[in-house]
């Protein structure tokens, strides 16, 4: 496959899809939202990542990956948390940044 893992890391998308399918995640989804998660967006992301992996142009592959559900809604940004607002409220300043 032409793309290195630095450009398109299939493991991130595979891990996200398998995490969604796990019984622990589905139990949490049922508790938090009252329904099971279909994991459709995660599976679609995995298919998109596989397509991006075989593209020869790095920039085109990065652009495709940037439009995935994972990059838009999850990733490492706390504002994108699926439980923000459902279980906890997102603070403007984190607890360790507030002056005492």
Structural description of this entry:
The protein has 100 residues and is mainly α. The protein is built from 5 helices and no strands. Helix 1 packs antiparallel against helix 3 and helix 3 packs antiparallel against helix 4. It is flat and about 45 Å long. The termini are far apart.
What is the topology?
Elements: H1 10-21, H2 23-33, H3 40-53, H4 58-66, H5 69-73
**Can you count the helices?**
5
How much β-strand is present in the residues?
A: under 5%
Shape: flat
What is the residue-mean pLDDT, rounded to a whole number?
Answer: 82
Kindly, what is the distance between the CA atoms of the first and last residues, rounded to a whole number of angstroms? 53 Å
Approximate helicity band = 40-55%
Radius of gyration: 16 Å
Structural class: mainly alpha
For the secondary structure, the number of strands is 0
Order of helices and strands: HHHHH
Quick rundown:
It contains 5 helices and no strands. It has helices spanning 10-21, 23-33, 40-53, 58-66, 69-73. The model has no long low-confidence stretch (mean pLDDT 82).
